[in-house]
Design brief:
The chain is of the alpha+beta class. The protein has helices at 33-42, 60-71, and strands spanning 22-25, 50-55, 74-81, 84-90.
């Protein structure tokens, strides 16, 4: 499933790069929405499965790391490409 907010075409196209059970694009959303939507999205997959999220909010890396730490998920990838943050999370 891909959860995409309305995009105006101004974003660099960053494709999903990991073969995850869930992929969601949260570009264009500001803190705390990317993490809140990630939490909701993780409800769609089983424990141990991986989810890939894209976000462009500068606070996203810190927010996603804190979210995973407090919820018990494992943040496997936290990377940045052309202003887009790519996260891969293993659901607890």
């Amino acid at each position: 499933m891909t959860d995409k907010p309305s995009l105006s075409g101004q974003h660099t196209e960053i494709p999903f790069q990991h073969g995850c059970a869930l992929q969601a694009d949260f570009r264009g959303l500001k803190c705390p929405l990317p993490v809140l939507k990630a939490r909701r999205s993780l409800g769609q997959i089983s424990s141990g499965q991986h989810a890939e999220f894209l976000a462009d909010d500068p606070a996203s890396p810190l927010d996603m790391a804190h979210f995973c730490e407090t919820e018990g998920h494992v943040l496997l990838v936290s990377d940045e490409q052309d202003g887009v943050f790519v996260f891969v999370v293993k659901k607890k």
